[in-house]
């Protein structure tokens, strides 16, 4: 018998002073059976950082290979933003960079990230529309502690610092940009 995704409901208030974006979002996150809480919260963080009315989660890990897990498409179907997670390989990122105006990779994993980055950085430098951001391991673990089936979260972003909190705890997230995209956002 196949395992089903676990569904999480998220009531999210975003106050992004860096982008002048202030909005409430009601989200439904499906956590694939093979996905841990840390990865799911990194996906939520990527949504927070790029939040807009047209940003949507796709079917995720069970999606077709030609879809991002999170993307922003315009009304004509053009992909403005393609978001990936983890320590992707160059082939997959090349495909994404060819299809989307901008690609963001959110990597996490603690001590394995510098090793992965050292090996892949030279190959990724040619992709002008790619941004690679590392989420520090301590912040990822703290975000996972916020997980419950019905989350009510507030997020404040100012000067690159992200504060994510629920009724009882707050997490400071300071993403580290490893590679900046050359194209305007």
Provide a descriptive summary of the structure in words.
- The protein is α/β, with parallel strands linked by helices and 185 residues long.
- Helix content is 24%, strand content 38%.
- The chain has four helices and eleven strands.
- The strands form two sheets. A six-stranded mixed sheet has the order 3-4-5-6-7-11.
- Helix 1 (37-50) crosses helix 4 (137-144).
- The protein is globular.
- It starts with 5 loop residues before the first strand and ends in a 6-residue tail after the last strand.
- The model has no long low-confidence stretch (mean pLDDT 92).
Summarize the structure.
With 185 residues, this protein is of the alpha/beta class.
Write the topology of this structure.
Blueprint: E1 6-16, E2 21-31, H1 37-50, E3 55-57, E4 70-73, E5 79-85, H2 90-99, E6 100-107, H3 112-124, E7 130-134, H4 137-144, E8 150-158, E9 161-165, E10 170-173, E11 176-179
Parallel strand pairs: 1-8, 5-6, 6-7
Antiparallel strand pairs: 1-2, 3-4, 4-5, 7-11, 8-9, 9-10
Helix pairs in contact: 1-4
